[in-house]
Amino acid sequence: MEDFGTPLDKNATELTVMDVYDIAAVVGQEFERIIDQFGCEASLRLMPKVVRILEVLEVLVTRNNINPETEELRRELDRLRMERNDRLKKEQLHQKELELVEDVWRGEAQDLLSQITQLQVENKSLRKSLSLKDSPVTEDLQRQEDVSERECQVMKKLKEVVDKQRDEIRDKDHELNLKNEDLEALQLQQHHLMKINLDLRHRISVVEAQGKAVIQQKAELEAMSQARQQELGALRREVARLKEERKEWELDMKRSAEEEPSPSKSVMTVLTPVSAKSLVLASAASIVHNSFWAECRSDHEFLAQCFESEESPPVLSLCDKDQEEEPDVLDQKESDRPHFTLEELRDVLKERNELKAQVFMLREELIYYKSEELENEIYGINLDPSLQSQPAATEQPDSGIKRLFSIFSGEKRRPEEVICYLHAEQAQEARKHP
């Protein structure tokens, strides 16, 4: 995708609705950084004002995008109206001129008619006078010829004037028809432009809705990618921790394999912390329903008090510290959060599922090996005959609470050993109750 620069670098006249949304996204990221550094109170009063400014900017940009087209159409409409008014004025002037020409023609025709009537009257009077008086014939003939020539000339002039005016009227009518056709074509073009304007407005609204939907989808994908990245980091830390525990367990197995116990020290091995732990785990495996995990699973405060010792910190406090340290690390990394595409999100989800499966397999394998090691230690210890000869009926089985306190009061254990004990007890309970 080509980079056209940030929306903040563009001119105010070139901004679009999508640029306003990009500016809103940039401002939102800056607010997130401010909130992460100084808390929500720093931007509590500023955020509504910024949101209002962005809304006003969006409305103004949409108006600016629509106004140029409407202004062009309005100017075109005004121009067409002006042309129509000019044509109407010209037609009115033309009609007035035609009326004046007709009036002049009528006046001239009336004058000519009056002259004709006058000449006819004179002709009659002359004929009467000729009939009454005896005058030479030549003079009468000359007079008649003169009168007839005048009448012919007058009639020719009238005919020429009438033909000329008729041609002018036809030309004016033709021009008027052409102007009317042009006016109708312009009106059709105006309606077509108005339809195009409505279509463009509809398309702009559709594009704005699509842009808003795309921005919302982008924000959701970014939030999902951030959550997936946090889960992936937690899973990676969990895998690293389990690998370290597995390495420590393998080292302990190697050390225990190298140190072979002698028969003369069988009684001493019973008194060691490992043998004591093995006996406690054996008794815990025999009594599942009265175990510590079944009695105190939901009491987290009691577990926190039980896990407290002088030399080793409690397990729950360590977990709380880890949980308190993780947001600090995430806050430091939030400033350079990457933006993922859809394919990268799919790869992250696939890797997360693979890591989850790997963590599950490592946990199951670790629990299995630890339970197997504890069983080997329980069955491999050579107990003292005097201890084996004691009747089991006189011994009363202790509850899980007492056995847990015997673990912590008899010798100071590490929190890792207590966790191993709880995992082994869960594994044995799962085996007995599949």
From TrEMBL:
Transmembrane segments: none
RH1 domain sequence ranges: 3-90
Coiled coil (residue ranges): 70-129, 155-189, 218-259
Any one GO biological process: cilium assembly
A molecular function GO annotation: small GTPase binding
Domain RH2: 337-404
Cell location: Cell projection, Cilium; Cytoplasm, Cytoskeleton, Microtubule organizing center, Centrosome; Cytoplasm, Cytosol
PROSITE patterns in alphabetical order: RH1 (PS51776), RH2 (PS51777)
GO cellular-component term (any): ciliary basal body
Pfam family, one: RILP
Keyword field: Cell projection, Cilium, Coiled coil, Cytoplasm, Cytoskeleton, Protein transport, Transport
InterPro entries: DZIP_RILPL, RH1, RH2, RILP_dimer
Keyword Coiled coil: yes
Family, per entry: Belongs to the RILPL family.
Protein name, entry field: RILP-like protein 1
